[in-house]
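cron nightly-structures :: item 1 of 1
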Amino acid sequence: MRVGILGGSFDPVHLGHLILAETCRERCRLDEVRFVPAAVPPHKTDKELAPAQSRVEMLEFALAGSPEFVVDRCELRREGTSFTVDTLQHFHDEDPSRELFLLIGADSLHDLPTWREPRRILELARVVAVNRGSAPIPELTPLEESLGTDVYDRIQIVTMPGIDLSSTDIRHRLRSGHSVRYLVPKAVEAYLREHKLYLPQT
């Protein structure tokens, strides 16, 4: 069983997340991709997220009809700051026979040495760094020097179609009264409209 792990705040989920997951599913021959919404992302501890239940419900709407894509609430159940190494350890302990693939944006690679227990992360999972479009391929040598381990055996670079989408931009568009049509799945767009998420508080 080859399982991809895609973590994030998903605040909200958008088509870029889905394209990344599908690209990795195909290129890495993954049996399943687990979308893991964070309780408190380590780099966003001062940021107020939409309620966890709303983020989960939007994910479930976005992934409906795709049995290879699964919402996993393990970080929400654990609460507190969501560290990647703890999540990977959880999946490993749950079923050691699974082969884990950590899916991240290639722009996050240079920060990997600052993450909690980066060497353990590389032991628990193969890191799949996703490059967008024609962006330069990340250089792995500095990582190898920093981590003191053979990163070339544990990090794989995958390229996805260039798409410039972010949850931050989508929240800004909603607050500004602009359309997010074709930027998020149709069911998520309807959810955002019904629940009036990310609109200015009156």
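cron nightly-structures :: done
The first helix runs from residue 15 to 27.
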